[in-house]
């Protein structure tokens, strides 16, 4: 469904992505792991066209979306992204945060968008918070609203960028539970995470990035129990203690 071919990206002369190749099948959950600065977040931003690649191509359903003639906003309706910062509109209620995109960008009738939003809020365990405002919610609740808002846009692929890293450890579990549910529903997900145990549990494939390149990729059991790369083994030894 989603394919990145030979992606390169630099900032100020520093090459952050060095020829990354990534294929994501429909319904697959791919977890990106690696140290800070390894290129995980930049790769996600390139996949969503928030960053323009310096070289290489990205395809969605065999359509080259890095073609400069492609409407990036139209592509982003198919590739949702959620960041570690929740980015909710503080002046809008939870319900309004979720319905805004479908109504404005997708042309969904307000009544239909409201019904879908309430269903999503129930799904993420926040049905009673529909009329609340973001500042009245905990970090975990805000992140669950951000997930509901992304899902409301009916994306083909959902990109998650370290969405638990800003949360208190006590709140991480409630967000990860939502992702488990999305996986069970067959959502295609590419997720950068530092939650190694979770990556092992939910992913179909784990991709280890180092210095802007994919060092190793494979099923979670292979990556976590018998990595072929010494760099992968060293990284996991530090993060699975």
TrEMBL record:
Q: How does it sit in the membrane?
A: Peripheral membrane protein
Q: Which residues form the ABC transporter domain?
A: 2-236
Gene Ontology CC annotations of this record: plasma membrane
One Pfam annotation, family name?
Answer: ABC_tran
Annotated CDD domains: ABC_HisP_GlnQ
A GO molecular-function term, please? ABC-type amino acid transporter activity
Spell out the Gene3D superfamilies in the cross-references.
Answer: P-loop containing nucleotide triphosphate hydrolases
From the Swiss-Prot or TrEMBL record, state where the protein is found: Cell membrane
Q: Which InterPro entries match?
A: AAA+_ATPase, ABC_ATPase_HisP-typ, ABC_transporter-like_ATP-bd, ABC_transporter-like_CS, MetN_ABC_transporter-like, P-loop_NTPase
Q: Which domain of life is it from?
A: Bacteria
Member of which family? Belongs to the ABC transporter superfamily.
Which named protein is this?
Amino acid ABC transporter ATP-binding protein
Q: What is the lineage of its organism?
A: Bacteria, Bacillati, Actinomycetota, Actinomycetes, Mycobacteriales
């Amino acid at each position: 469904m989603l394919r990145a071919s030979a992606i390169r990206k630099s900032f100020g002369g520093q090459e952050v992505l060095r020829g990354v190749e990534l294929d994501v099948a429909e319904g697959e959950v791919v977890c990106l792991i690696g140290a800070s600065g390894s290129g995980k977040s930049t790769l996600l931003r390139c996949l969503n066209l928030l960053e323009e690649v310096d070289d290489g191509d990205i395809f969605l359903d065999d359509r080259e979306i890095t073609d400069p003639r492609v409407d990036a906003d139209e592509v982003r309706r198919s590739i949702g992204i959620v960041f570690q910062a929740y980015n909710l509109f503080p002046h809008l209620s939870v319900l309004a945060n979720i319905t805004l995109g479908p109504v404005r960008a997708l042309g969904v009738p307000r009544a239909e968008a409201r019904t879908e939003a309430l269903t999503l809020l129930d799904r993420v365990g926040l049905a009673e918070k529909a009329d609340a405002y973001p500042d009245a919610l905990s970090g975990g609740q805000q992140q669950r609203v951000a997930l509901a808002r992304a899902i409301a846009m009916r994306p083909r692929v959902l990109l998650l960028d370290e969405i638990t890293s800003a949360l208190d450890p006590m709140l991480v579990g409630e967000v990860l539970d939502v992702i488990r549910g999305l996986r069970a529903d067959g959502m295609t997900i590419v997720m950068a995470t530092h939650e190694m145990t979770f990556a092992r549990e939910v992913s179909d494939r784990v991709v280890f990035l180092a210095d802007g390149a994919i060092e190793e990729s494979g099923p979670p059991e292979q990556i976590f129990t018998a990595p072929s790369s010494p760099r992968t083994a060293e990284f996991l030894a530090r993060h699975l203690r």
